[in-house]
Each structure stands twice: as C-alpha cells, then as structure tokens.
Amino acid sequence: MATSLYFVWGCSEFKNEQAVGAETAQAEAEDAMTAASEAEPLEGADALADEETSNNYEDAGDVNPIEQLIEGVPIDVTFPVNTSMSQIHERLAYDIVIQSKVDSIVINNVTINRGNNCNINDYSRDKYLPANLKFGRYTRLSIDCDVNYIREVEVETNLGNYKFDQFVQR
Fold it and tell me: What superkingdom heads the lineage (predicted)?
C-alpha cells in the first residue's frame, strides 16, 4: 500500500512540472507574437512589391492546405481515354484534362509523379501550355503512361500550385 501512495504522489509531482512548462511556453509564444506585431516593415518593401506585380503575372507558389480546404481547389483533374492514340498504338492511351472551376486561371505547368516514369507529350506541352482558362473551359494534354500508375499530379497555376494524389475518376 505504501508503494501505491508513493506512485500517486510521484505522478502528481510530474503533472505539476508539465503545467509549469506549458505556461512558460505559452508566455514565450505570446511575447514573440507581440514583438512581431510591433516590428516595422522593411524600408522599400512596398516599392519592391509594386515592381514585381507590374508584369501582369503573379506566381502564388504553393497553396496553404488549410486555405485549399476552405476556398476549394480551382481546377479538376481527370484522365479520359484518348481514342485516336489508342487506335494508332493498339493499346489504351490516356490524356490528362484540367478544367477550370473559377472565372479565370492560367495553367503554367503540369508534373506527373514528380517527373518520374510519366510525362506529358512534348507536343502537347509546347502547344497547350500555358493555358488561359475561363470557368468551365479545359485543356487536354496527352500523357505517355498508363493512368493506373499515376500517384501524384502537381498543377502549377497563377493562383498557386495544387497537388492531387487521390483520383476517384479515371
């Protein structure tokens, strides 16, 4: 019985140490947030930002996954069969179709499986990219692999980069 009491006493001591550590970390985080909000912006940063946006092209880079969930993905990706290429090669050939779900988007590049073992046909890439798409419009690009081996597609747009890794519709 004395062992049980000692064990309970030891647990309560450990719990108190954790609570003190959590309070300290929270206080440090609040101090950092206060310092960041009081910091002055860099001189000339506004002028530099104005110069970069004057070329009518803005690369938003990778899109925050939380924003992507809230705002939704502005494009759909599907893989229909390319019947003419299937007849020529006497095997199933596929295309990748990227369709706009927003009023205006520019598709700059498409990378399949991080560039490994599956590519977009050079002719399609040169002729159809970049693609300026309005709502409901799409671009169709020939790919040189079996759609069953595609694990990831990254689409680079003027609104950000979007990764697709789960394909329901093939």
Answer: Bacteria
DSSP state of 40: P
Q: Does domain 65-164 have CATH number 2.60.120?
A: no
Domain chopping of the chain, boundaries? 2-39, 65-164
Neighbour count for residue 158 (Cβ, 10 Å): 17
Is there a contact between 141 and 150 (Cβ–Cβ < 8 Å)?
no
What are the pLDDT digits (tens) for 139-169? 999 998 989 999 999 999 999 999 998 764 4
* 106 three-state secondary structure: strand
Query: Which of 100, 98, 78, 96 lies closest to 170, judged by CA?
Result: 78
Adjacency order of strands within the sheet including 95-100: 75-78, 95-100, 138-142
Place of tokens 């000692």: 6
pTM of the model: 0.58
